[in-house]
Amino acid sequence: MYIKVSQFIKPNNSLMHIGYKIQKIRELLDISREQAAGHLNLSLETYGKIERCTLDPTEERLEKLASLFGTSVEYIKNFDPRQAMNNNFHNQNGDNVVTKNGADKLMLEMYERLLERVIILEKKMEK
Question: Strand, coil or helix: what is 117?
């Protein structure tokens, strides 16, 4: 009996796998797995396979995720989770974005979009 080892082992460089990148971007934007799966019209189980690096997303799904994340497919593909985890996005006043290790422009734009969404939601809650 033979066991397919790839079923149990993540890719050698799982930090650079597209599924891991999708997971980290989703977490940074505070989007649930359920929301992401629903946006793609996938079951939670199938969506989980993408984040666990056992199913590669199609270009169409990457485009839908980019839309959900407020960024581009190219950004998702080039996203470096290690860099994102080393960034400090707030100054002491919470006004400006300050970064360490030179976070790229797209990461800052994505963060600004998230802040805009938060402000809109806060205004809706006040009503």
Answer: helix
Helices of type H across the chain: 18-28, 33-39, 44-51, 59-69, 73-78, 81-85, 105-126
First to last CA, the chain: 64
Contact 53, 86 (CB under 8 A): no
**What's the CA gap between 97 and 44, in Å, rounded?**
33
CATH class of the region 9-126: mainly alpha
Q: State the helix-helix crossing angle for 18-28 and 59-69, rounded to 10 degrees.
A: 20
Count of CB atoms situated within 10 Å of the CB of 14: 12
Q: Which residues of the chain have pLDDT under 70?
A: 1-15, 84-107
| Paired tokens of 18 | 């597209």
**Residues 88 and 99 sit within 8 Å (Cβ to Cβ):** yes
pLDDT at 15: 53
DSSP string, 67-79: HHHTS-HHHHHH-
